[in-house]
Amino acid sequence: MAVDKHVFFKDVAKRLAASTLLYKVDSVVHVEDKDDIWFWEQLLLKYRPGRYKFKPATMNEKGNRTAGCAQCLKYKGFLSQKFFICIDSDLRRLAGEDISAVDGILQTYTYSWENHCAFAAKLQRSFTDHKQNGFDFTLFLEQYSAIVYEPFLLMLYQERNGLTSFNRDRFRQCISLQYRKEDEQSNGKQFLERLSFQLLEKTKDIIDNCGFDFNKESAYYATLGMKKENTYLYVRGHCLYNSLVSMGSKLCEDTAVDFEQNILKPVLAFEEYDEISEIKKDILLLKTLRKDLS
Questions:
Q1: Residues 91 and 149 reside in one and the same domain
Q2: How far is CA 235 from its chain centroid?
Q3: pTM for this structure?
Q4: Do residues 167 and 159 touch, judged by C-beta distance below 8 A?
């Protein structure tokens, strides 16, 4: 007999909300993956102090333990102050998907939590505190954003219109770069040139032949907060994060500094930029949610 998914997830949501008593917490929080917990825990404890039980996976209607955003969103409509979800925005917000804190859904406002670790001003401060070799991450990420901006807009346009010649997978392949010898010299010039070349090669025969209007697209996405200067916050976070770790590890070579753990990951730049400030607003909106699912 087929399971009624609506009934199933409503019932599970009720039980998860009720489990706050078992865990002796204020809220049970479903995240996409265990690696996401540290990020959401920092934000929730800062703006909604309390006790939390994080669930990186729950059972689906087939009885399989399941993680990921799709699993989290199956609880949409059944969330409360005692049980809510936290997800990566991915491209959903830019695509106009209806995701709101008033429904019990917190989102990153960047592609994922990894982009927040890369916030340029924070990253540069953290790097300078540990190293004094002159590499400027603020300038590097500004140049990175300028390079990926138009191709990223093209990819969004293609995705929105069901075109496939430069979809998200092709864009991801172009930005999935790792450190190569001498990339750290001249403030990452060689790395950035390689990034620019790969994107140009993949888009040069497409960009003028698919109805893409740069001015129209850039004006639209600016209304959502994405601009030429901050595009690095919106591209696939895992790709950017891995690129920075590979570059930063070279910059910290032969020192006791672990670039990822000591520089990139430890401190979030609370309230220093719009995307993280939007999360604060959303967390404060949780108090408007129903207290429980009746």
A1: no
A2: 8
A3: 0.95
A4: yes
How far from 78 is each of 6, 8, 63, 113, CA to CA, in Å?
9, 11, 19, 25
- What backbone phi and psi angles, to 5 degrees, belong to 54? -95, 135
Residue 272 domain flag: no
Domain that holds residue 37: 5-113+278-288
Residues in the chain where the model's pLDDT stays below 70: 1-2, 132
Q: 109 and 125 share a domain?
A: no
> For 25-105, where are the alpha helices, taking DSSP H only?
37-47, 69-73
Total tally of structural domains belonging to the chain: 2
Looking at the chain, how many residues does it have? 294
Do 254 and 140 share a structural domain? Answer: yes
Amino acid in the structure at residue 75: Y
Whether residue 128 is found in the same domain as residue 68: no
Sequence-ordered strand ranges (E) for the chain: 27-31, 52-55, 58-59, 65-66, 83-87, 105-107
Residues 6+ apart with CB under 8 A from 48: 283, 284, 286
Structure tokens at 116: 């927040």
Q: 124 and 263 share a domain?
A: yes
pLDDT of residue 1: 53
Pairing mode of beta strands 83-87, 27-31: parallel
